[in-house]
Amino acid sequence: MTVDATLAPPATGTSAPPATGALRIGPHTVWPPVVLAPMAGITNAPFRTLCREFSGGKGLFVSEMITTRALVERNDKTMQLIHFDATETPRSIQLYGVDPATVGKAVRMIVDEDLADHVDLNFGCPVPKVTRKGGGSALPFKRNLLRAILREAVGSAGDLPVTIKMRKGIDDDHLTYLDAGRIAVEEGVTAVALHGRTAAQHYGGTADWDAIARLKEHVPEIPVLGNGDIWCAEDAVRMMRETGCDGVVVGRGCLGRPWLFGDLVAALGSGAPGEGGAPAAPRFGEVAAVMRRHAELLGLWLGDEARGVVDFRKHVPWYTKGFSVGSDVRRALAMASSLAELSELLESLDQSQPWPAHADGPRGRTAPGKRVVLPDGWLDDPYACAALSEDAESATSGG
């Protein structure tokens, strides 16, 4: 089945796109300057394929977060996650690590075995089981540890560009993003992406786009990408105009909306959403076709149709948000185990349903602020290079 790459949600505005040049990530030109954010269990090869189909191959699509220790140890699941389709270029891997030596080994492995064309490092994950070990969004507080990791990564990368994704800091009393941005520049990082929230905010509240603007002013030497609260193409246009950032990173906004990347291409590449003959908002029948395609791709990737459909179940609430889907059908969709069963359930619904009003907006994790769990004494000295235990690495992604 061929997905209609013109499928797009309704426009929310008609502002002209900001004046901007192509995003440069080392030797790679990314236009429009749009990046798919790594999300655990989401941004696997099938989902990246779907997003690329809608964008016409334009943009940068990053893998799920890969733990450096698991990569070096050649964990079977990890080795599957780093597989890229032959059409993916550039191939982009996000790594998570807390030990400079292990990060260096992982990057050298990527270079020596030609596993990717770009390496991104995760310093944004706010999940408690990560921060309590000093990883993710907790790590940039330790400035010298951050510097050591970046130095190993960049020094091991050769010609491969290294970028980072981070948050504002641990909480409003422990902001780290400006120091981290300066360290990144000094250590040869190619670009930085900032999620405009602290770890304490988790995914609640509103992203602070002003912080993205401040970071751009603070590190004019390298591209700065903005992340947070991009739910439609107009949000991306507005973020770039208001902050002066060089590109956008889209995470939860594309959950159940892979066609958002087509809308972003239209908005940032050739005019604003709603102009120039932009496609009409999808009806449910079109959305259902994308759902079947997504489940099919997962089955092919996993080598088992039933496993693919089971893995797809978590996407159902995002795709169907706002549409009229009865509770019985919702329960059945959450238990579907074959493509035939999934198709039958989707076909039982009204295919002509128009795109729901207010269907766009927060999706995925929306947990409010909470206390950040940190190692004992973590905040005592921002420059002490803490020794972290081996179990500080986790397979949980986010940021």
TrEMBL record:
<feature type="region of interest" description="Disordered">
    <location>
        <begin position="1"/>
        <end position="20"/>
    </location>
</feature>
<keyword id="KW-0521">NADP</keyword>
<dbReference type="InterPro" id="IPR018517">
    <property type="entry name" value="tRNA_hU_synthase_CS"/>
</dbReference>
<protein>
    <submittedName>
        <fullName>Putative TIM-barrel protein, nifR3 family</fullName>
    </submittedName>
</protein>
<dbReference type="InterPro" id="IPR024036">
    <property type="entry name" value="tRNA-dHydroUridine_Synthase_C"/>
</dbReference>
<feature type="domain" description="DUS-like FMN-binding">
    <location>
        <begin position="36"/>
        <end position="347"/>
    </location>
</feature>
<dbReference type="InterPro" id="IPR013785">
    <property type="entry name" value="Aldolase_TIM"/>
</dbReference>
<dbReference type="GO" id="GO:0017150">
    <property type="term" value="F:tRNA dihydrouridine synthase activity"/>
</dbReference>
<dbReference type="InterPro" id="IPR035587">
    <property type="entry name" value="DUS-like_FMN-bd"/>
</dbReference>
<keyword id="KW-0560">Oxidoreductase</keyword>
<dbReference type="GO" id="GO:0050660">
    <property type="term" value="F:flavin adenine dinucleotide binding"/>
</dbReference>
<keyword id="KW-0819">tRNA processing</keyword>
<dbReference type="Pfam" id="PF01207">
    <property type="entry name" value="Dus"/>
</dbReference>
<keyword id="KW-0285">Flavoprotein</keyword>
<dbReference type="GO" id="GO:0003723">
    <property type="term" value="F:RNA binding"/>
</dbReference>
<keyword id="KW-0288">FMN</keyword>
<feature type="region of interest" description="Disordered">
    <location>
        <begin position="352"/>
        <end position="373"/>
    </location>
</feature>
<dbReference type="InterPro" id="IPR004652">
    <property type="entry name" value="DusB-like"/>
</dbReference>
